[in-house]
């Protein structure tokens, strides 16, 4: 029988024992690091594993006609968790619904959906606790194929150049043909892979519960390097400007050279890091929590120096989306905040009710929030006024995906929703 977490079990897993654990006010602090300075003397990179030789490909007689040029690598739609390898959760070229919305379709899996859908080439890719990865027609919501793993899929798929990359709690990272769901390769780690892959320049970057961050060749699944932390790595890495940024349950954030896996710096938070870092405009945003309150750190991407921090009562840590000089923070308690990305000065706050657990995306001047009360909310990014809400009926644990005027989101009732203007 497949395990299905209840909402109560999920909240207890975060260490929440009652409303008293969440009471309080949000405060902003700016200035210099306070006992959590960046350093460069921890974490290790180890060489790639030796893989067994592969069978040579059969030689074909060249045809008289020249071969067509290979397609150029491109990123379109919403190809991975956070919209891009830097996890900005913002897609400037996309559009989303702003008024008169309704449910376009619903797709039902067999267990909880706690992954963020990827949408590429009119197909929605999503994983489920029922151990499957699904490909769903974006227009009508019909299943195109499913790929079975041997564990719950809590890793959000990444789709690039015709391949789906996804982790599973069975300890593997899989590469699957995006057209028909056939397996291309699998890569074994020594722990569950809840981390969502970030894919850039022919490399898959992903964390594992075995404490490592891995760089894997996207074409054949061979290991390029691994980097050891001191705790489980459950969040997606962020990749920008030749650096991989990763958080660990060892309470540290790491900057790792994308080419060889060597450490550039680390930043100690003294708190667990469950959420993916975000990189924008030379700043790394790192969310950390002691399971009662959370802190968002803004760090210099180059050396890890702290710019500012912002505290909120968020058992799993605040989430962030960054667009147009604004950092939008989702919290567990009541609020969504818009902060000046440079100074953390508050621009507005949106407070619809208790226990938001808001996961955010920003598209075309609108903040889209998937919330713990099961409601998808759309808020004007400029002033925080509410545009619309849709109740899906159960917990939403990942940021919405917004492509071509449609919002896609999964919930704990095993369902993917497509929401659009009527």
Explained architecture:
The protein is mainly β. It has a single domain (7-46, 74-421), classed as YVTN repeat-like/Quinoprotein amine dehydrogenase (Methylamine Dehydrogenase, Chain H). The protein is 2% helix and 42% strand. It contains one helix and 35 strands. The strands form eight sheets. Strands 1-24-23-22-21 form a five-stranded antiparallel β-sheet, with no helix packed on it. The protein has a five-stranded antiparallel β-sheet with strand order 2-20-19-18-17, with no helix packed on it. β25 and β26 form a beta hairpin. It is globular and about 50 Å long. Mean pLDDT is 85; it is low at 6-75.
Stretches where pLDDT falls below 50 for ≥5 residues? 6-75
Q: How many helix segments? A: 1
| The CATH homologous superfamily | YVTN repeat-like/Quinoprotein amine dehydrogenase
CATH architecture assignment:
7 Propeller
Strand order of the largest sheet: 1-24-23-22-21
Task: Evaluate the radius of gyration.
Answer: 21 Å
Q: Determine the strand fraction and express it as a percent band.
A: 35-45%
Mean pLDDT value: 85
Q: How does the major sheet shape up?
A: 5 strands, antiparallel
Q: How many structural domains are formed by the residues?
A: 1
From the 3D structure, determine the CATH topology. Methylamine Dehydrogenase, Chain H
Distance between the termini: 39 Å
């Amino acid at each position: 029988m497949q395990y299905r977490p209840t909402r109560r079990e999920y909240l207890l897993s975060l260490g929440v024992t009652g409303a008293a654990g969440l009471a309080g006010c949000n405060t902003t602090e700016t200035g210099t690091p306070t006992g959590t300075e960046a350093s460069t003397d921890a974490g290790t990179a180890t060489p790639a594993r030796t893989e067994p030789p592969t069978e040579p490909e059969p030689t074909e007689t060249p045809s008289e006609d020249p071969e067509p040029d290979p397609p150029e690598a491109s990123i379109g739609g919403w190809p991975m968790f956070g919209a891009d390898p830097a996890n900005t959760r913002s897609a400037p070229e996309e559009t989303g619904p702003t008024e008169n919305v309704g449910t376009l379709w619903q797709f039902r899996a067999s267990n909880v959906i706690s992954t963020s859908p990827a949408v590429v080439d009119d197909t929605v890719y999503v994983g489920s606790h029922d151990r499957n990865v699904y490909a769903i027609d974006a227009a009508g919501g019909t299943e195109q194929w499913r790929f079975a793993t041997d564990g719950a899929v809590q890793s959000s798929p990444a789709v690039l150049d015709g391949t789906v990359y996804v982790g599973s709690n069975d300890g593997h990272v899989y590469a699957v043909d995006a057209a028909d769901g056939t397996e291309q390769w699998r890569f074994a780690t020594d722990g569950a892979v809840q981390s969502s892959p970030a894919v850039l320049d022919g490399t898959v970057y992903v964390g594992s519960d075995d404490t490592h961050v891995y760089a894997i060749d996207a074409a054949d699944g061979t290991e390029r390097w691994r980097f050891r932390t001191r705790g489980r790595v459950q969040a997606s890495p962020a990749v920008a400007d030749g650096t991989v940024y990763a958080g660990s349950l060892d309470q540290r954030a790491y900057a790792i050279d994308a080419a060889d896996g060597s450490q550039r710096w680390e930043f100690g938070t003294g708190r667990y890091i469950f959420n993916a870092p975000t990189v924008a405009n030379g700043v790394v945003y790192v969310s950390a929590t002691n399971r009662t309150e959370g802190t968002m750190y803004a760090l210099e991407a180059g050396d890890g120096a702290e710019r500012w921090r912002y505290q909120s009562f968020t058992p799993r840590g605040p989430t962030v989306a960054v667009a147009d000089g604004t950092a939008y923070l989702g919290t567990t308690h009541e609020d969504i905040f818009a902060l000046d990305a440079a100074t953390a000065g508050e621009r507005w706050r949106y407070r619809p009710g208790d226990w938001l657990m808001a996961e955010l995306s920003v598209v075309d001047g609108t903040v889209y929030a998937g919330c713990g009360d099961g409601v998808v909310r759309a808020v004007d990014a400029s002033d925080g006024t509410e545009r619309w809400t849709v109740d899906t009926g159960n917990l939403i644990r990942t940021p919405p995906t917004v492509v071509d005027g449609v919002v896609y989101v999964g919930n704990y009732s095993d369902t993917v929703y497509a929401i659009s203007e009527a």
